[in-house]
Design goal:
The protein is α/β, with parallel strands linked by helices and about 190 residues long. It is built from six helices and nine strands. About 40% of the residues lie in helices and about 20% in strands. α5 crosses α6. The protein is globular and about 50 Å long. The N and C termini lie far apart (about 35 Å).
């Protein structure tokens, strides 16, 4: 199953936090937490890199964000892998395989191919399987300028209630404040 960001499918389900829940406390500063990624996995970014990237966002987009957690891999999450997730004022970033190669049982969608290419990921077909190969610098770029910023876009989206509109806004936010902004600094 391809990695994907959770959209609004949780919207119609009863409350069940996906992670360790962080109550909204109107924190003065953004708290960045890091758990061990788990055996065979790594966090492609450090808490310091996350803090530096967040600091580059306009202040109005940092204000509603309270916690970023680099989470551990679990058996359940490995079955439905995600790069990141937003829940309330918290963003969760998930680890990736230490090999920097992700394996999928079905071909990538065109949008997945394009997104990976934008950040330097390379898709390869291996028989009936597909692999997405990363280098650590490309993966850092992908996490800091796409995954993190996409999830912060969800934190800032107070207008949209429909899952498609929320996802569309977060994608736009990641392109505008992640991809384009990072390329202008280069």
């Amino acid at each position: 199953m391809p990695r994907r960001r959770l959209g609004g499918e949780r919207d119609s389900q009863p409350f069940c936090p996906p992670e360790r829940w962080h109550e909204s406390l109107d924190r003065e500063e953004i708290e960045i937490l890091s758990e061990s990624p788990g055996k065979g996995y790594l966090h492609p970014v450090t808490p310091e890199e996350v803090a530096d990237r967040i600091e580059q966002l306009p202040a109005r987009f940092r204000e509603p964000l309270e916690v970023v957690q680099l989470s551990r891999m679990t058996r359940k999450r490995a079955l439905m892998p995600l790069y990141g997730l937003q829940w309330g004022s918290t963003v969760y970033l998930y680890p990736i395989e230490e090999s920097l190669v992700e394996t999928y049982g079905c071909p990538p969608m065109p949008s997945q191919m394009t997104e990976a290419r934008m950040y330097g990921g390379k898709w390869e077909q291996q028989g009936k399987m597909w692999e997405l190969h990363w280098t650590l610098p490309c993966l850092k770029d992908f996490y800091l300028n796409n995954i993190l910023i996409h999830e912060i876009g969800h934190v800032n989206d107070t207008r949209n209630t429909n899952s498609q509109d929320r996802e569309r806004f977060a994608e736009w936010f990641a392109i505008e404040y992640g991809y384009r902004a990072s390329r202008c600094r280069s």
